[in-house]
Amino acid sequence: MSITGKTKLFPIVGHPVENVFSPPAFNVWFEKNDVDGCMIAMDVPPDGLESFLSIMRTSPSFLGCSVTYPHKQAALHCVDELTPRAERLGVLNTIRRTPDGRLIGDATDGAALVTAMRTVGGQIKGKTAMILGAGGGAGMAIADAFCAASISGLVLLDTDVNRQDHVKKMIGDHWPEVKILEAAQEIEILVNATSMGANPTDPCPFDPTLIAKADIICDVLSNPKLAELTKASGTRLVNGQMMGEAQVLPQLRFLGLDQRDVSRN
User: Fold this and answer.
1) Peptide bond into 176 cis (omega under 30)
2) Which of 20, 241, 221 is nearest to 132 (CA)?
3) To bridge 125 with a disulfide, which of 145, 150, 193, 226 should be the other Cys (CB 3.0-4.6 Å)?
């Protein structure tokens, strides 16, 4: 990949960013599709987010950015417009910069996980799922996408009771046909949408008996203990890398690269 003064930037911003998965998949797409663009990971502490987005607003070198932990909710208040999905969820993970410097936010985490699940034969319609970290940015987007894919019931868990109540209310308001389950029995899809797994010493987020009974395990990071238990049980696994790769098309469609000649060689 050759980076010049014409190259358009689409960074992924978070804090920390050492373990993000997206840049290789995006850069392969840019190269294969003859788009003069580049994704890099940028570590932006919480107190620097607004300043970073102000710079992005003023510079036509940016297509926008991908947003990861811990900025998905804070960035919501720094943009000019939201898609209905992002507005419904109260989080975003993608920002598009318009030619006049306006910033528009969307939330594609859930769509990316659903895509990644389907690549390994995972089914969602009529199933039940447990989501840990359901009140966070990724967790809410995943819950919403599962509802859109006709899931039957959800167990929604978060260590923050207020966030847990918020996601339950969002599901009740927008997806009343989906059952909110309190019990964790016979759950077919397990989702770790927490930061548990960022450190190699982190414990496994799920009890081994739940893993053994599940059809598929999803992990927005790549918890090594969870991966080990999933492999031992023979259960299908969708990890953070697979989800990161599945982000490419939803995010780039939102950017509208196929209609934006300025981003092409």
Assistant:
1) no
2) 221
3) 150
Cβ-contact 100, 234 below 8 angstroms: no
pLDDT, tens digit (0-9, with 9 covering 90-100), for 45-76: 999 999 999 999 999 999 999 999 899 999 99
Which of these, 109, 166, 160, 102, lies nearest to 139 by C-alpha position? 109
Q: What is the pLDDT of residues 192-208, one digit of tens each?
A: 999 887 777 888 999 99
Determine the Cα–Cα distance for residues 83 and 75; give it in Å rounded to an integer. 14
Residue 112: closest CA among 137, 82, 79, 76 = 137
Contact call for residues 151 and 178 (beta carbons, < 8 A): yes
Write out the two tokens for 205.
Answer: 């987020």
Nearest-10 Cα torsion for 137, 226, 15, 100: -50
Give the residue numbers marked as catalytic: 72
Is residue 263 predicted with pLDDT exceeding 60? Answer: no
Instruction: Identify the bridge partners of residue 104 per DSSP, sorted by sequence position.
Output: 81, 96
Closest residue by Cα to residue 243 from 218, 224, 217, 214: 218
| CA–CA distance, 133 with 155 (Å, rounded to integer) | 11
Rounded Cα–Cα distance for residues 104 and 182 (Å): 36
Residue-level length of the chain: 265
Helix (H/G/I), strand (E/B), else coil: 94: strand
